[in-house]
């Protein structure tokens, strides 16, 4: 505690520091998997997938809505407001301050966003977790948002699709964040009880309380390639069981091999896969579809699947969407 640490060091730090995660001049993006540099427009045109090694970069809610819904068919849902900082929590910073920072960074009130629209003509509500917002952590707002989105799906007799990306429960909300595990489970159960499909798309990373609740309850669980999906971290498990774990432990592929998820789907194929699944699962609610209706729906789903197979035009559209996102 002297003038050197109090004055000189912070000044030097301020001179040296560069806050540059979103600097637009940063035209080249480093692929964390193959270590190559990718030109940002190439990455946008390729749906944020590395063209060298197929690494799937993390993408946000807006990207998912544009990529998964039929073009121009979707509208965002306004999600309920939750009490802000109920515990008046403070670590190195106040929780309310952290929230404000995340809100100004993302332009959203919390780590979940939802929209309703159509996928290959079928009604759907999609909720997407935003990892950019405090690591997609699950607090009261996220629980409220998920519940509201699920209830809208029931009201609209729509499929409920959740795209997860989360570090787990939000520690700044203590037990209140843990209470969102049963709450989100109830939300999902309401959709299932209504006989509507609940599909989860697990993306990198999906961990902690989110994995332990709604993420693993999908009627069909899809994961993006190479996503890290698990409950506790690798180091914690290794130290607890005193054994070393396989290299691919907690990856989508490992989970698929061990029956924890149903399929690993490349980002380019996600929309077509969703369209196919919904086409097969969604029939007129409340009554068994008669033969004619059933065959019409199956034919429709086959049409849709070929229609939505990502062709070059579709990719360009998504690329354009990516451009808009990064401007
Ligand atoms: Zn790569």
Task: Note down, in words, how this protein is organized.
- By secondary structure, the chain is α/β, with parallel strands linked by helices.
- The chain has 2 domains: about 25-55, no CATH class; about 60-305, 2-enoyl-CoA Hydratase, Chain A, domain 1, CATH 3.90.226.10.
- The protein contains 13 helices and 9 strands.
- It has helices spanning about 5-15, 40-45, 60-70, 95-105, 140-155, 175-180, 180-195, 210, 235-240, 250-255, 270-280, 290-310, 310-325, and strands spanning about 30, 35-40, 75, 110-120, 120-130, 160-165, 200-205, 220-225, 265.
- It has a 7-stranded mixed sheet, with helices on both faces.
- Helix 5 runs parallel beside helix 7.
- The protein is globular, with a radius of gyration of 21 Å.
- The protein starts with a helix and ends with a helix.
- Mean pLDDT is about 85; it is low at about 285-290 and about 305-325.
- Zinc ion (ZN) binds near residues 34 and 36.
Query: At the first level of CATH, what is the class of the largest domain?
Result: Alpha Beta
Taking the alpha carbons of the first and last residues, their distance comes to 45 Å
Low-confidence stretches: 285-289, 305-327
Tally of separate helices? 13
CATH superfamily descriptor of the largest domain: 2-enoyl-CoA Hydratase, Chain A, domain 1
- Here the CATH topology of the largest domain equals 2-enoyl-CoA Hydratase, Chain A, domain 1
Q: Rg, please?
A: 21 Å
Entry summary:
The chain is α/β, with parallel strands linked by helices and 327 residues long. It is built from 13 helices and nine strands.
């Amino acid at each position: 505690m002297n003038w050197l640490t109090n004055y000189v060091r912070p000044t030097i730090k301020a001179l040296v520091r560069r806050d540059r995660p979103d600097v637009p001049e940063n035209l080249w993006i480093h692929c964390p998997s193959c270590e190559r540099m990718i030109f940002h427009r190439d990455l946008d045109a390729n749906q944020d997938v590395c063209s060298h090694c197929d690494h799937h970069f993390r993408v946000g809610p807006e990207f998912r809505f544009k990529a998964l819904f039929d073009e121009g068919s979707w509208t965002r849902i306004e999600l309920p407001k939750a009490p802000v900082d109920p515990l008046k929590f403070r670590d190195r910073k106040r929780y309310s301050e952290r929230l404000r920072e995340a809100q100004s960074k993302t332009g959203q009130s919390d780590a979940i966003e939802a929209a309703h629209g159509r996928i290959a003509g079928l009604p759907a509500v999609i909720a997407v977790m935003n990892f950019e917002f405090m690591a997609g952590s699950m607090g009261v707002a996220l629980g409220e948002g998920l519940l509201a989105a699920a209830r809208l799906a029931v009201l609209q007799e729509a499929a409920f699709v959740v795209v997860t990306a989360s570090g787990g429960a939000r520690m700044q909300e203590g037990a209140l964040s843990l209470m969102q595990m049963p709450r989100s489970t109830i939300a999902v159960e309401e959709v299932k009880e209504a006989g509507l499909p609940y599909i989860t798309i697990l993306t990198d990373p999906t961990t902690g309380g989110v994995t332990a609740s709604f993420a693993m309850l999908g009627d069909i669980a899809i994961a993006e390639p190479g996503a890290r999906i698990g409950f506790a971290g690798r180091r914690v498990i290794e130290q607890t069981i005193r054994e070393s774990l396989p290299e691919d432990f907690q990856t989508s592929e490992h989970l698929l091999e061990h029956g924890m998820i149903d399929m690993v789907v490349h980002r380019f194929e996600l929309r077509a896969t969703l369209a196919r699944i919904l086409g097969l699962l969604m029939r007129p609610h409340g009554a068994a579809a008669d033969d004619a209706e059933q065959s019409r729906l199956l034919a429709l789903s086959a049409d849709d699947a070929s229609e939505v197979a990502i062709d070059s035009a579709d990719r360009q559209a998504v690329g354009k969407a990516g451009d808009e996102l990064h401007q």
